[in-house]
Amino acid sequence: MKKLFSLLLLIFSISFTQAQVTSKTIKLDEKTIVKDESGNIYPFNLWRKFMETGQYSLKLISDKDALTPEFQLFQMTPDQIEESKKQRSEYASTLPKPSSSRSFRDGQKFRFENMKYLNGNKFDSKTDTGKVVVLNFWFINCPPCKKEIPELNELVEKYKDKNVIFIAIALDDAYSLNKFLRMSPFNYNIVEDGTYYSQKYVVKSYPTHVVVGKDGKVKFSTSGLGPNTIYWVDKTISAEL
Questions:
Q1: Residues of the chain with pLDDT under 70
Q2: Which of 87, 120, 136, 181 has the highest count of CB atoms within 10 angstroms of its CB?
Q3: What is d(CA 182, CA 177) in angstroms, rounded to the nearest whole number?
């Protein structure tokens, strides 16, 4: 996990450094020295949190060949953020399609059930047919589940006027979810206490994504979070509309 995180940071986040930095020369991990503008060192967990927002990046402030390279955390401009997203998408498009989740098979008929959302609304398996349904199985204490939320929210915004329903089936109870969502908004329709659904669909890895087409069949599924996971969720939704 640490190696994957380090590689992802280098590929996705170091877009505007003052020197050429690649995954072959410098690795980012808990030992990396990251400072603010005043030279104060950020703890690993703090600068990682900033990076996960997609609003911040790092620039090299020491010689790249230094024994211990040093970086400065900075907030990206809107143009830089868009360029970073573009680079991530271009990179993701070069990667092979993620492995399917063991819980689902492409082309199989999805067994829908009525579900009640945290906000009181419901998914009706009869009236909500003929739409693309995107499911995310997750839980609060799952680091990759939390890391992907900002990008998933972007998908909700992108397809808000389309016939797409986004459902996040959480293992957590309503109290824990409401507390979490106050600090970390998740714009999917949240289903609380989703252990029943995880067991029904035999989901054992998190996060697990499933995209169901208008015909009610599974078009894409995968477990875990890779550099091209969200790219393929988005690509599949677009193809089904």
A1: 1-26
A2: 136
A3: 9
